[in-house]
Amino acid sequence: MARIELRKIRKQWGEVVAVEDLDLVIEDGEFVAILGPSGCGKSTTLFMLAGIYMPTAGELLFDGIPVNEVEAKDRNVGIVFQSYALYPHLDVRRNIMFPLKFKGVPKAEAARRAVEAARLVHVEELLDRMPSQLSGGQQQRVALARALVKEPQLLLLDEPLSNLDATLRLSMRTEIKRLQRHTGVTTVLVTHDQIEATTMADRIVCMRKGRIEQIGTPEDLYERPDSLFVASFIGAPPINLLPGEARDGRLAVGGTELELLGAAAGRVILGIRPEALRPGEGGLPATVLDVEPMGRETLFLLETPLGQLRALLSGATAPYGAGDRTAFTFDPEDSILFSESSERRLPDVHVRLPA
Ligand SMILES: Nc1ncnc2c1ncn2[C@@H]1O[C@H](COP(=O)(O)OP(=O)(O)O)[C@@H](O)[C@H]1O
Ligand SMILES: [Mg+2]
What we know:
single chain, Rossmann fold, six-stranded mixed beta sheet, 20 strands, CATH 2.40.50.140, binds adenosine-5'-diphosphate, alpha+beta
């Protein structure tokens, strides 16, 4: 296990800067997710941790020891890729034992540890099969066993669930979380899926265009997003965003005015999550435009004086149909304000529906 530190890490190929100015500390035993859209530098960061890529600049430390110059094979890092990358000509047992070959582990001990790792991920009954005889989910479990067999000080997972179907993805999420808790191995998960990141990780590093946008717990990113980018990236269905003008203790949005709590002036963006809206007497008058059942919840598209809003209510049966008129309200602390020009959140500023 290790504490990982990235100091001003940068990776560049010719003109392309993939990662820039990355400062991050991952505590010993922590489970961190690197989250962001395709091409933002997640895999590049992971490959630098693995020793597959060498940083162009900056310092990388494992337990306080610089490892920039340490080769991948000497870092004791386990890595799982989206494509399971099993050796097709080796059976499951030999696939799992493979990383121990280069560590001088005696054959008998390697075989014993392979069985142990296979048990950990529940593939012990598959040890004599060939990869071609396994389902995608089973292959991914074997890849996990292969990454864990050398008892790595760091486990790296690059979009490990992307190739699995929805049901399997759900169970593997729980499974990987359990494994991480059980082994206590410091883990970095790379994903573009905000649900994966928020359900699995202790902390999320949200990246955009090669830079860190925000680091925090899933709750931090959901409730206190530093920027419009994070606010929009986290949460499904996405947050409602409405342009407005703050002036003299009031916020003009759409065709109406809200009471401003806290100091703000000029062009702002008001954010309200669909799940923060609920039916309420004396709230915003709302006309239901559309109703979308989403299993246990129902999504409503509303026309309101603020503009169009998405509202998510629990319950599979809709209390309203298209064309119904009703009223919706929200708590001031569930309103988030951003500066329109900087796209940064205005801390401690909220709005309230006029009484
Ligand atoms: N080997 C490489 N050579 C040149 N450019 C690369 C290489 N690997 C990645 N890049 C570029 O770096 C950026 C980040 O890529 P990557 O880390 O793979 O993003 P992500 O994993 O977040 O989708 C992209 O613009 C990508 O095209
Ligand atoms: Mg990637």
